[in-house]
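# nightly structure sweep
# worker-07 picked up a monomer target from the shared queue
# config: single-sequence mode, recycle default, output format = structure tokens
# input follows
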Amino acid sequence: MLKGKNSDAAIMLKAMLAALGRNDMMAYLAMMAVRLLELHRVLKPTGSLYLHCDPVASHYLKILLDAIFSPKNFLAELIWKRTSAHANATQSFGAVHDVLLFYKKGGSIIWNQQYTRYTDAYIAEHFVHKDPDGRLFRRSDLRNPGVRPNLMYDYTASNGRTYAPHSNGWAVSLEVMKELDRQNRLFFPAKENGRLRKKIYLDESLGVPITDVWEDLPPIHASSPERLGYPTQKPVALLERIVAASSSEGDVVLDPFCGCGTTVHAAQKLKRQWIGIDVTHLAVALIERRLKEAFPGIKYDVFGVPKDAAGAADLAARDKHEFQKWIVATIGGQPYKGGKKGMDRGIDGFLHFRDVDNQPQTAIISVKGGGTKSGDIRDLKGVLEREGAAIGVFLTLGKPSREMEKEAASAGFYETGNHKFPRLQLLTAEQVIEGQRPKAPFSHFESLKKASRESEDKQGRLI
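# output follows
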């Protein structure tokens, strides 16, 4: 970093290291620094960067962003109320907000002003006038905020009265004033010395320009329809506001930490092109499923996931835990304990389904990314008995041996109504890539909830 074009970030990191010492926060800031430098490099001159963080790290990140983007390119610190009050704050204030740091690369940016709807109280207080046709309006001053000698003119209105300008002059030209009068958009005062004003109709008003404090976006709670079960999921409305404000249709939106894909969902919905990046295969699988459910027929490319048996073997060789999360998520399963490492008690994931009586049932998933033996199948049979699960699914990198197949067949069948399914099913990574899935009653449903379907609009090209 010291030898790069932007050495300010390295100098700032050195200063932070001297102040903070070597700890988790310093490791996080060092990780973010190299990524923010790369984001600055690829950002278009008219582009913007939004960095979401919590108040624990926001002040450090702002200093780092100032070093990379320059303090003059800082645009706003946005406060987003992400949740309702926390009742467990016993010696401090309830932590209910996160921070979004908003920067530009330099020069002019794409900016589309966003608005919030007027409250009923605001409408009742300000839109107090009504035309004969019932349209509500408020009065707006026609006085120019500055001194404009070229807008100093007397105006004879359609009501026959002549109105003198304010000492600063009118806010509009004579031609515009005549057009406003012709369209019945001038408010004539009752008093002869009253000020001529403009009508602002409620049904034409965009609302209140959004400030840097966002309290109007409903949080994702346990019963939210859009909740998918991903721990750091953000509301689509939050990302829609950001994407709509700082890009136009057809622009490219990049989220390098895309998690469950809320940013790419919002970008697709608003007809932007997009790039989403995440390091976990669980997140990538969830995003794929989310996009297919919300936008039927959507087309996109996925890079970095196994496309054939060789790719699956390569992933297993590099990181067996990621192989496990990838293959579990690919068949629609939910990794055990969210995919966290630790003692798994012979369980790598779950599938959930309902029997003929609509009662919830469970299939247990076991994954082997290396060598396998018939004893692995016996172990899974034991887990099924211990957990009282209906079905077991054994996912393996290589082709199972005949002994393993015989052991699986000896488990018998799971029956519900007139339907029979092998109680212990074997699938290889190659079969999963080819589209084969476990056999379960009436199809299975995933532990993560489905995304709501969006419009049928399709984007021409997705990155």
